[in-house]
Amino acid sequence: MITLSLIGIGTGNPDHVTLAAVRALNSADVILLPRKGEAKSDLLDLRRLLCEQLLDSATQANIVEFDLPTRDAKCAYLSAVDDWHSAIARVWAQLMDKHLPNGGRVGMLVWGDPSLYDSSLRIAKRLTDSGRAVEVKVVPGITSLQVLTAEHKIPLNALAEPVQITTGRRLRERGWPSDAATVAVMLDSGGAFTTLPQEDTYIWWGAYLGMDKQCLIKGPLSEVNDEIIERRAALREAHGWIMDIYMLAKHPLL
After folding, report:
1. Are 111 and 212 in contact (CB under 8 A)?
2. Beta 62-67 vs 182-186: how paired, if at all?
3. Is the pLDDT of residue 40 over 70?
4. Residue 107 CB partners (closer than 8 Å, separation 6+)
5. Residues 141, 134: Cα–Cα separation, whole Å
6. What pLDDT digit, counting tens, does each position of 1-21 carry?
């Protein structure tokens, strides 16, 4: 039997890793660290740093780095993601067979939390659906959405109002979600908010949340729209990649 722990590690700040996550890391026999290409090598460096800082000296966990398969950008999105998840599941299975042929405990460090726009749980289900003796456990982590609201010092919702969490692609395709007073937008390839009416809309934007290079911008969308686009492009050029998130509302949240 393999026990696979999907461990939410927050957004890169070791102070945001929970005690439960630390215990899960220190109980693992193998810790898997994905490599996502040279452009995001500092994400791997952060995972390495977390292991160095959080693993006890007596812990005997074998830290294994592996290359994450890439998604075919030429295919239709959903079918490409389905194939991509299958490829990742095969890699996980191969690593488990190689490093824990007699069973044991695997720790997988998941950016943010496994529940929020992360596919680790879906990939893990492919292992169990294939008949493998894998028990999946989840250790929740702090999400980028939580860090965004904390850094901007705002609540997630307006008083007694609903919130919708969506993606940049959906925002472009469908506009402002109906009945949502506040909209949180993730996985935006850049500037989906420019498709919305600029007047009477407020934005709270953040990039590299929890990291040393964190950047925050807020204000009426009509006033900071261009600033966010320009800053985002400059940051992406400087670092080779960017992870950002933002919230939108029809009025200030405080």
Report:
1. no
2. unpaired
3. no
4. 5, 7, 24, 25, 27, 28, 30, 31, 32, 61
5. 22
6. 999 999 999 987 889 999 999
Q: Where are the alpha helices (DSSP H) in 59-111?
A: 77-99
Helix residue spans in the chain (DSSP H): 19-27, 41-54, 77-99, 120-129, 144-152, 168-174, 221-239
Domains of the chain with CATH codes: 2-139 (3.40.1010.10), 144-249 (3.30.950.10)
Q: What is the rounded CA–CA span in Å between residue 244 and residue 73? A: 21
| pLDDT at residue 39 is higher than 60 | no
Tens of pLDDT along 112-132?
A: 999 999 999 999 999 999 989
Half-sphere exposure of 119 (CA within 13 A, CB side): 15
> Each residue of 75-84: pLDDT tens digit?
788 888 989 9
Whether residue 2 contacts residue 134, with contact meaning beta carbons closer than 8 Å, is answered with yes
Determine phi and psi for 216, rounding to 5 degrees: -130, 140
Mean pLDDT, the chain, integer: 91
Q: If you compute the radius of gyration of the chain from its CA atoms, what whole number of angstroms results?
A: 19
- The one-letter code for the residue type at 146 is Q
How many angstroms separate the CA atoms of 69 and 179, rounded? 38
